[in-house]
Design a protein that fits this description.
With 342 residues, this protein is α/β, with parallel strands linked by helices. The chain has 11 helices and 10 strands. A 5-stranded mixed sheet has the order 3-2-1-4-5, with helices on both faces. Strands 8-7-6-9-10 form a 5-stranded mixed sheet, sandwiched between helices. The longest helix has 26 residues. It is globular, with a radius of gyration of 20 Å. Bound molecules: 5'-O-[(R)-(carboxyoxy)(hydroxy)phosphoryl]adenosine and zinc ion. The site of 5'-O-[(R)-(carboxyoxy)(hydroxy)phosphoryl]adenosine has 20 residues, from helix 5 and helix 6.
């Protein structure tokens, strides 16, 4: 089954053609990062207009009008994301589906991220899945593609958002994650934050065993940095210390879930799964028998291949959309800042 995927939830305009949820036949992505950089973050209004400008040129790189009738369905990110950006992808997907009389598959962006590692490996169920991005930090118990539970989430900022905010405070630019990651590689976390002074982030109480919290970490770093006289010369150490705290929290809560559910398969996805410290740490878990699946770097962030891949499984389950009624969806269960209670 050949699915055309369209992703426009944030600042990437992406289109991909994927066969049977695995084989990426063709793909193209236009990244708006350079446009948003001068504002130190994504400006929603500009993002929507950029999608309008680029969606057809990107689409044309992947498929010609005459080839469109050879696809089996059109999958599109329905939400969550920036409303104006989502509407561009949805509008185009609906128009294409309507004109070539193919079914529309509305895809959940979080489910698409979680699917990204599945494009490259046959991952055994059940597993503990972590989606760590600029908008979400969610921990799942995944039984199969259609049965999963949200075990925990951030109770305030998303982890990627914390990276971006700290980078702004440090004057590094946007997006913060890759910039902090790169600087951290030459830094020493202990030099900035001695082991005895490490903050105890969201202790493992019964309520918060699988939850995350990042606004306090960002605030405490911002405060410490404000009082530093030699900020510029200590940038790498600051980045290494922040990265260690932020990622270690992700890992501790994920480890709680792996242990409690007796599982040894771990899947990480979302923009933050590109983090080199995170990837190195989970590779070390292999020695403890925990197998981690993650997408290649190019597929950690937003891309249409994961949308088409996820759409294939939705299609197999008969989860087609309705061209006349489907619209932007906020999807309550992934709403940010909601403490998950068990
Ligand atoms: O999944 P994504 O592309 O978009 C959302 O759905 O949010 O994630 C973007 C987020 C940004 O906050 C970015 O700073 C972060 O992922 N990110 C990273 C790295 N690369 C991207 N965070 C930490 N380390 C990285 N290497
Ligand atoms: Zn995303």
């Amino acid at each position: 089954m050949r699915i055309l995927g369209i992703e426009t939830s944030c600042d990437e305009t992406s289109v991909a053609l994927v066969e049977d949820g695995k084989t990426i036949l063709k793909e193209a992505t236009y990244s708006q990062i350079a446009v948003h950089r001068e504002f130190d973050g994504v400006v929603p209004e500009i993002a929507s207009r950029q999608h309008i400008l680029h969606i057809l040129p990107v689409l044309e790189k992947v498929i010609t009008p005459s080839e469109l009738s050879s696809v089996d369905a059109i999958a599109v990110t329905q939400g969550p994301g920036l409303i104006g950006s989502l509407l561009v992808g949805l509008g185009v997907a609906k128009a294409l589906a309507y004109s070539v009389k193919k079914p529309l598959i509305p895809v959940n962006h979080i489910e698409a991220h979680l699917y990204a590692p599945h494009l490259f490996a046959d991952i055994p169920f059940p597993y503990i899945g972590l989606v760590a991005s600029g908008g979400h930090t969610l921990l799942f118990l995944v039984r199969d593609f259609h049965h999963y539970e949200v075990l925990g989430s951030t109770i305030d900022d998303a982890v990627g958002e914390a990276f971006d905010k700290l980078a702004k405070v440090l004057g590094l630019g946007y997006p913060g994650g890759p910039l902090i990651d790169r600087l951290a590689q030459t830094g020493n976390a202990d030099t900035f934050l001695e082991p005895t002074k490490r903050p105890s982030l969201l202790p493992d109480t019964e309520r918060d065993r699988y939850n995350f919290s990042y606004s306090g970490l960002k605030t405490s770093f911002t405060y410490r940095i404000q009082h530093l006289e030699d900020k510029a010369s200590r940038l790498a150490d600051i980045c290494a210390a922040f990265q260690r705290e932020a990622i270690d929290l992700l890992l501790r809560k994920s480890q709680n879930a792996l242990k409690d559910y007796g599982l040894n398969t771990f899947v990480i996805s979302g923009g933050v799964s590109a983090n080199s410290y995170l990837r190195q740490r989970v590779t070390e878990w292999e020695k403890q028998g925990i197998h981690t699946f993650m997408a290649p770097l190019a597929y950690c962030g937003d891309n249409a291949a994961m949308v088409a891949g996820r759409g294939y499984h939705d299609a197999l389950a008969g989860k087609y959309g309705n061209l006349r009624t489907d619209a932007y969806s906020r999807l309550d269960f992934v709403r940010k800042g909601k403490r998950i209670l068990n």
